[in-house]
Amino acid sequence: MGFRLESIVPWGRSFDEHVAMFALSEADLGRRILGCGDGPAAFNAVLTERGGRIVSVDPLYGVPVDAIRRRIAETYPEVMAQARRNRDEFVWDRIGTVEALGRLRMAAMETFLADYPAGLRQGRYLPAALPTLPFTDGAFELAVCSHLLFLYSEVLSEAFHLASLRELCRVAGEVRVFPLLELGTRPSRHLEAVSTRLIDEGYGVSVEPVAYEFQRGGNRMLRVLKGNRGA
Predict the structure, then answer these.
(1) Given this model, what pLDDT does residue 58 score?
(2) How many angstroms separate the CA atoms of 171 and 64, rounded?
(3) pTM for this entry
(4) Helix 65-85 vs helix 98-122: angle between axes, to the nearest 10 degrees?
(5) 5-225 topology per CATH
(6) How do residues 53-98 score in pLDDT, each as one tens digit?
């Protein structure tokens, strides 16, 4: 099935959230970065303004800016209503209130929308999706994948996760994935099996704490390093 804009709910996170989610150091931010499944996040725009080197991929990037803006406006009220209904699933020490969450997310998405046309022209936003990426081996030093792998374990199979992580390791020497919970704050049903398989194939795999927790219990990332047999 092809990408359909009406089937997605665009929801973008801020630059500072990306830095915290993936424990990104200043040295990390100076690497060649691939952002996978970035959606309408501010990370690419802000990092580019700071002089960083980043390409973001998402099926959303095949859609014109005005259509993305309309879709954000259509879905925003329901996303906010869901946040209110499920507020006990989240930790509010960093963001504070549902209203503050809405302001933070909209500011991030406005940053993305302002940058998107130029980013398309410059090749910083590309319409692509896992488990197959349009890049040569080792094109990036670091790949980060936010709120896609593991979060949607109920609908994305173990085989999809394994193929996606192998592909990310093909194009980048290091991969970081956040969070490791499914929707509903349950530990991902695929994490243990996928990690074990990757270790067996020669990749370096670790689960590491990060200084970010919004989804309750979601304060760990997966780090995968390409090993000799995984090269």
Answers:
(1) 96
(2) 27
(3) 0.93
(4) 160
(5) Rossmann fold (3.40.50)
(6) 999 999 999 999 999 999 999 999 999 999 999 999 999 998 999 9
